[in-house]
Amino acid sequence: MKTIYKKMLVAGAAMALAGVAQAQSAGSNMVSFGWMRIMPTGHSEFLTIDSIGGFPVGAQKPNTGATIDSADTLGLTFAHYFTDNISGEFVFGVPPKHNVSGDRGYEKYGKLGEVRQWSPAIVAKWHFFDAKTKFRPFLGLGVNYTWFTSETVTNQSFVQGEFGPGSHMSASAKSSWNPVFTAGANYAVTDNWFVGFSVSYVPVTTTASFTTTLANGALVQSHTKIKIDPVVTYLNVGYRF
Among 215, 158, 211, which residue's Cα sits nearest to residue 50? Predict the structure, then answer.
């Protein structure tokens, strides 16, 4: 009985090691969820007035600008291991709502408006060490598509202070394809469960366009380029299958 028991223990240990290896090897899948923080690092150019009442202007307003504030959201990923070291990952999550704050001469107005950002991405990753290693750092390179919804100018003091009493403004932002650079690590807590952390950089630039209706009904068309360039951190818990 003792011999049989020892053989069972050895077999169980071998199966456990095989499970760890299988969990991070070719053909396995991973899902994760966690806290994602998006921290924009750029700012806008000066506001350009394109036209007033239909007449072309094409002049920049000096000492104007805006920045996109940081936001938190729920991140989600799905990954597939093509080999023991190479995986492809789809990154998405709940689209965060960012506050847009005044910059330079517009800083005195504080919050100017809001925008919701959608940024799904596909990332190829190289995982270091062999498949059965618990701690596996990685480097990744991918592509992201960013678009915006719910672009709203909420600060009427800003609009009327810059364009006169009775004015109101609407906004839109252009979508774009962007590269994604990422680095991080996963740690296998059990054969199937893991925790992970990553830092990504996405060089995003968008053109924000504005239509301002003056009190007399005349339209002012304007735009600015905004470098968002967010650093994105992702702290997550995941499951391998």
Answer: 211
**Neighbour tally for 192: CB within 10 Å:** 16
Q: What is the pLDDT of residue 132?
A: 87
Q: How far apart are CA 50 and CA 57, in angstroms?
A: 5
pTM metric for this prediction: 0.85
- Domain ranges across the chain: 2-240
Q: pLDDT of 24-82, one tens digit each?
A: 678 899 999 999 999 999 999 999 999 999 999 999 999 999 999 999 999 999 999 99
Distance CA 92, CA 145 (A): 11
Bridge partners (DSSP) of residue 100 are 68, 113
The stretches of the chain forming alpha helices (DSSP H) are 2-23, 156-163
Please report the pLDDT score of residue 23 as a whole number: 56
> What is the 3-state secondary structure of 141-190?
EEEEEEEEEEEEECCHHHHHHHHCCCCEEEEEECCEEEEEEEEEEEEECC
pLDDT, tens digit, 9 for 90 and up, residues 118-165: 999 999 999 999 888 999 999 999 999 999 999 999 999 999 999 999
Structure tokens at 91: 């990154």
Using only the alpha carbons of the chain, give its radius of gyration.
Answer: 25
Separation of alpha carbons 122 and 88, rounded Å: 7
CB 229 within 8 A of CB 180: no
* CATH number at 2-240: 2.40.160.20
Residues 180, 142: contact at Cβ < 8 Å?
yes
157: Cα separation from own chain's centroid: 30
Element (H, E) at 99: strand 97-102
